[in-house]
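Researcher: We're teaching a course module on how sequence relates to structure. For the next exercise, students receive a sequence and then see the predicted structure as tokens, so they can try to spot secondary structure elements on their own. Here is the exercise chain.
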Amino acid sequence: MSIDKDTAARVAHLARIRVDEERLPALAEEFNAILGFIEQLNEVDVDGVEPMTSVTPMRLKRREDVVTDGDRQAEVLKNAPDAREGFFAVPKVVE
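Model: And here is the predicted structure for the students to work with:
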């Protein structure tokens, strides 16, 4: 697939990017280079290769899922710039 100047202009418009007319041929070349790289990736045989989330095998640290006493209302509210009746007070945004 090849991207021409008109297609590059349309992609720029859809992406809401302003591109000067004289810059469109260079943008089209960049798009073509990206598509060429994608075509190279499509040539790689990945059958039987499991997807990975990291380049090194890692196991996430886990903690026990236990219920704790969350009775920290006063401690949390003392950080609030404005608190009333046990809740955060925020400015009214809807009339």
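Model: If you want an answer key for the exercise: The chain is about 35% helix and 5% strand. Helices lie at 5-14, 24-42, 73-77.
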